[in-house]
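The passage that follows is intended for readers who have already worked through the single-chain material. We present the inputs for a multi-component assembly, then the predicted structure in tokenized form, and finally a short commentary. You are encouraged to pause after the input and sketch how you expect the pieces to fit together before reading on.
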Amino acid sequence: MKWSDFFTSSVGKKLIMSLSGLFLIAFLVVHVGLNACIWAMDDGVMFNKAAHFMGSNVVPRVLEIGLFATFFLHIIQGLVLEFQNRAKRKKGYAVKMGSKGSAWYRKSMGLLGTLILLFLIMHIAHFWVPSRITGLEPVYIDGKEYHNLFAEMASVFNDNLLVVILYVLGCFSLAWHLVHGFQSAFRALGLTNHKYIALINSVGIGFSVIVPLAFALMPVSFYLGWV
Amino acid sequence: MEHYSMNLTLKVWKQQNASAEGNFETYQVKDISSEMSFLEMFDVLNEQLIHDGKEPIAFDHDCREGICGMCSMYINGRPHGPWHGTTTCQLHMRAFKDGDTVVVEPWRANAFPVVKDLVVDRSSFDRIIQAGGYVSVNTGVSIDGNAIPIEKDNADKAFAAAACIGCGACVAACKNSSAMLFVSAKVSHLALLPQGNTERKNRVMNMVSQMDKEGFGSCTFTEACEAVCPKEISITNISRLNGEYAKASLASDKQ
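Having made your guess, compare it with the prediction:
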């Protein structure tokens, strides 16, 4: 079988969604870990240093290109699959199945993904664009100049309830997207051992709660003056 | 168990042929016994329609004992009706109560075009089976089944997958109209047994290729198929198919 045949087959496309999704999950771990530095209670010194490392070291910069490519692949493939799958039933049912047998979030990955995409556009405009393109205010730590990303976060979130609410809603969409996506990614890779399926399900739910909750607490922390 | 009779309002999809528009017709049925099967209730309705000089409702059925996979009604928003692990023919009228309105629709999927009323064309499943859902055996004396050792665990899993009757409820329930539960049951049934091992790579590649050609959607693990399957086929079979397909196609050296 040719590479092109595999990756254009329904199962191959699912594998692409799975592998790209797992890469994005790995990215979330890095992202939440670095951002947690805002809670070091040092006026953002540790956070700005961590952000500086991510912006200046060659490894994260190369990975950043891969990250954008993966985001692009996951989003485009996801949207294409959603529309292709919807077109497979031209005439629908008069009485819908609703949630009989299938939880709402398992059937709403396209919608949840789209909400995350809208959040992502806002998020990139808030932080990635100033960090990499338009520039940030400098801050001097031990005589060395850094971008003051911490101050940027404060300016985005402080006294801006609407933005904080949008971020929390974005994290909420992410949580439900992950509840299904985490375990589905492993099933797409062929996981059939029930011992491991149970483990993946538990780890997946834990991840889907903890990581988006930690992200959601970041804008809330700025807004409520916890940092 | 209490025996009772009921009067029902039925809203049934009527469609003259594949190209006709189709619409719901409303019927009243009276004195239906709680011990009748759902299809027997339809027999009563059809006799009534014939008696009144009207055209009876076309619906698929054959064995009426839950093993042939012919019956295919989407009842009140669920393939095969409200009972778990039950085909339409094994659904009994005690699932309903006097005065209920029951909406009956055909399976809906592009790959299952309506032939007439509640009858859909499921020959796409036959073509998927023809693409690889078999074991090639040369003619001659059959080998004693006990001569081939099979691990009990695998034999049980293969048997559970082989229980699939190919009714298509999985497709009817899936928001993507995916046939993955059906195809994965057939792939798993044979992949788990030594007899199926020889052709396992070509089988999974050919069956998935045919499935895609027939116009079924892709699986997104919504689990709706498993919930409505009258034979309670597990979606773990879909995971197995994914693994089998990846291994077979990535290892294949065909250009």
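Commentary: The first helix of chain A runs from residue 3 to 8. The first strand of chain A starts at residue 138 and ends at 141. How closely did your sketch match?
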